[in-house]
Design goal:
Length: 408
């Protein structure tokens, strides 16, 4: 006779928690499907609604498959392992995160091959966003490294801020065909090699040492490097010359060029950017001495920030060139203009300069050394809604003169 004992162990799904393990230094947000834990040695079991886990600032050291056992029941899409003291990883470490879309490995003391090992272990078909800011690698060749990763994954968003590389070759990234957003700001890049990125929409190159050494950098009509780019950030670099540099970027809407050592802005510098709507070219330092006639010529431009350039908008200065009649002559759609932080002559220069800008809605003239406003100033700008002229030396104005034809 045999007795069969059927032992039913109540299956208390060990990997599903319904409440946030608060005692384990985590906070959770059910509405946002989000959890965050800090100062831990292991990843705890989390509520099943969690799809985004910020597990930065912990002590994981060694990534392996078992590191993520507690997450088995989750459909985790976003995972941050930033600042987790990771220095090693096994080649199956991220195998089980089958829904992963975005991974942040910033600020870990791991060498490049460890990072690549971890990333290559991802099996999720949705993986598309990679963030590794503040990595400790020197001279790795960002382009070729990314190219290898782009061969394995359809990366759409990549962020590698604060990198040590001094050069970046877009040409080496030919496999990154679906890349839309690329941030390599705040690094040491001096040399850029152009290359074709078919779907790139936003390129953040600010705060490097970039010079754009030659004309035609972004390509020509039929061979344009970034045909879909909409946002290009180049502020805080070493660009001295924009001549023939900005062309063929037909979709570019926003261009930021602040804080570059430009001395001259030539005629029609931006004319070949037919979608440009916002241009910021502020805080150029002391060197700017020439703004050629029609420098800002653009039918699409809505908003121009030319603040903080200490440029002398005054007639008849021998070392400064600008043309009050034509500086804003062919910028018909300009509605917002910031000229703060320049020196403005209020006799006739300001009025003459602004005369062609018929649709101006917002004008900033802060800190422009003005002691009065020109006679009949506002009547020339019938659409003006906002006018800021603080930090000047206008002790009083004669409303009857300045506002002459507006008031009844
Ligand atoms: C989590 O625990 C801490 C103390 O350990 C407490 O101050 C906090 O109120 C708790 N939060 C929740 C949501 O229970
Ligand atoms: C996941 O992260 C991306 C950015 O990496 C963000 O846009 C998205 O909203 C996040 N998703 C969730 C569910 O938090
Ligand atoms: C990338 O996208 C292409 C086209 O949609 C698809 O065929 C391919 O399987 C994807 N690759 C990966 C690794 O998901
Ligand atoms: C600019 O304004 C003109 C009229 O002055 C208009 O025909 C044109 O569509 C505008 N262009 C853009 C890009 O908004
Ligand atoms: C123009 O740019 C400067 C410098 O970046 C900024 O401080 C200022 O707010 C900008 N002006 C407007 C109107 O946004
Ligand atoms: C401001 O204006 C007053 C009176 O018009 C003048 O005495 C003073 O020197 C001016 N200050 C500056 C900084 O221009």
């Amino acid at each position: 006779m045999m007795f069969v004992f059927l032992v039913l162990i109540p299956h208390t799904m060990q990997t599903i928690a319904t409440t946030c393990p608060n005692a384990s230094r985590c906070v959770c947000d059910e509405e946002k499907h989000y959890a965050k834990c800090t100062n831990r040695l292991v990843i705890p079991v989390l509520p099943s609604y969690v799809t985004s886990l910020d597990f930065s600032r912990n002590f994981l050291m060694h990534l392996q498959r078992s590191t993520f056992t507690a997450l088995e029941a989750l459909k985790l899409e976003n995972l941050s392992l930033a600042n987790d003291n990771i220095c090693r990883a096994t080649s199956d470490s991220l195998n089980d995160l089958l829904y992963l879309r975005s991974l942040d490995l910033s600020r870990n003391p791991m060498i490049l091959s460890v990072a690549v090992t971890a990333i290559m272990s991802i099996r999720s078909p949705f993986f598309s966003t990679l963030i590794i800011n503040m990595n400790p690698w020197k001279f790795i060749g960002i382009g070729s490294t990314l190219n290898a990763l782009c061969t394995a994954f359809n990366l759409t968003h990549v962020s590698l801020r604060y990198s040590y590389d001094t050069s970046l070759s877009f040409n080496e990234m030919s496999k990154c065909v679906v890349l839309q957003f690329f941030d390599v700001s705040k690094g040491h890049i001096q040399f850029l090699e152009p290359g074709f990125l078919k779907h790139i929409k936003e390129l953040n190159l600010q705060n490097n040492g970039i010079t754009l050494r030659r004309g035609g950098f972004f390509g020509r009509k039929s061979t344009c490097s970034f045909p879909q780019i909409e946002i290009l950030r180049l502020e805080n670099n070493r660009i001295r010359n924009l001549d023939n540099r900005l062309s063929c970027l037909d979709k570019l809407r926003i261009l930021i060029l602040d804080n570059n050592p430009l001395m001259q802005i030539s005629t029609n510098t931006f004319i070949n950017l037919p979608s440009l709507s916002h241009l910021s070219i502020a805080n150029l330092g002391d060197g700017l001495n020439t703004v050629k006639s029609l420098a800002f010529g653009s039918t699409s431009l809505n908003s121009l920030n030319f603040s903080g350039n200490k440029f002398m908008f005054k007639s008849l200065l021998s070392n400064i060139y600008f043309d009050k009649y034509n500086i804003f002559k062919l910028v018909p759609n300009l509605t917002e203009l910031d000229l703060s932080g320049n020196i403005v002559d209020t006799s006739d220069v300001l009025t003459t300069m602004l005369l062609p800008v018929k649709f101006l809605k917002k004008l900033w003239l802060k800190n422009c050394g003005m002691s009065s406003l020109p006679t009949d100033f506002f009547s020339k700008m019938p659409h003006l809604q906002e006018f800021v002229a603080s930090y000047n030396n206008i002790s009083a104005w004669d409303g009857n003169i300045v506002l002459e034809t507006i008031l009844p």
